[in-house]
Amino acid sequence: MGRVPDLRRVNIVIATPAARGSRKGNRITALRWAGHLRALRHHVSLVEAWDGQSCDLLVALHATKSYPSVERFRARRPDGPLIVGLAGTDLYQDLPSSPEARRSLELATRLTVLQPLGIEALPPEVRGKARSIVQSAHAARPTAAPPGVFQVCLLAHLRAVKDPFLGASAVRLLPARSRARLVHLGAALDPGAEARARREMAENARYVWLGERPHRAALGLLAGSKLLLVTSRLEGGSNAVSEALAAGVPILSTQVGGSVGVLGADYPGYTPAGDAAALASSLLRAEEDAGFLSALQRGVERARPLVDPVREREAWRDLLAELGFRS
């Protein structure tokens, strides 16, 4: 990399494929990164694609979808500092088959992943320029659940990679004595998903889909729940997991890298991806076995320092310093 000017105030452009106003995870991540970088006294702009905007540093979120931005930037700025932030679909879905994703990794000056196991998913030749920056979150004021209900929360858009109806299938399997109710927030992104969610509500008294809600409302619902469910088939690093940790809410998750990398391999709340019966068993155990729920709680408290906003901000400060920028 060519010499980078030692600037106190850096002009940074973050390119994210998630449009302004979107509540997709990539947009939430980009907005949070922008907040941290601004707190470090840098100037930050968010764009959907980089097309020549003036900047000292480009941060491209999503190796596959932001590849056109990465390619344009590197063609015009052969020595320019370029950070590529990797999403879960990059790491666990696209890299084996996408030449664009692999090329983004090659062109980047540095790479970021959202949890340490993400580095292991990278090709060996680029791991040396990868840094793990766990997503931070703030605790929210809880929205109280209805009395007598064991409320379980699912924060996931309705798209196949999230396996969004696994939770609904699981609560169908619970015995009549269970007080569990699953409240699901997320936009219907896949064709037919909204109709299926409405049909599920009509047939399943334990399932409530509220659609897409403002982020603050979602955090309040999460904070007032007994559990967060993560049902994804793959995750690079879940915003919802970080938000549950900040709120001190126990988590039941499919055993995917994005959760294991944050919660740890010995966390007791994992179930196999796609296994509704195993999830139902864990749900009932969390509801009826105080010892199990306490073990989940202890695991959450142990991991909670990882999502301290100061920690994430300092990680960005260190990364900028590696590139020659002082904060």
Number of strand elements: 12
Largest sheet: 6 strands, parallel
Q: What name does CATH use for the topology of the largest domain?
A: Rossmann fold
Structural class: alpha/beta
The end-to-end distance, rounded to whole angstroms, is 20 Å
Give the uncertain stretches in residue-range form. Answer: 1-6
User: What CATH architecture of the largest domain would you give?
Assistant: 3-Layer(aba) Sandwich
Write structural notes for this entry:
By secondary structure, this protein is α/β, with parallel strands linked by helices. It folds into two domains: 11-136 and 308-322, Glycogen Phosphorylase B (Rossmann fold, 3-Layer(aba) Sandwich); 150-307, Glycogen Phosphorylase B (Rossmann fold), CATH 3.40.50. The protein is 39% helix and 16% strand. It contains 13 helices and twelve strands. It has helices spanning 25-39, 67-76, 88-94, 99-107, 117-120, 166-172, 193-203, 215-223, 239-247, 257-263, 276-288, 290-303, 309-322; strands at residues 11-15, 43-47, 57-61, 82-85, 110-113, 130-132, 150-155, 180-185, 207-211, 227-230, 251-254, 270-271. Helix 1 (25-39) packs across helix 13, helix 2 (67-76) packs parallel to helix 4 (99-107) and helix 11 packs across helix 12.
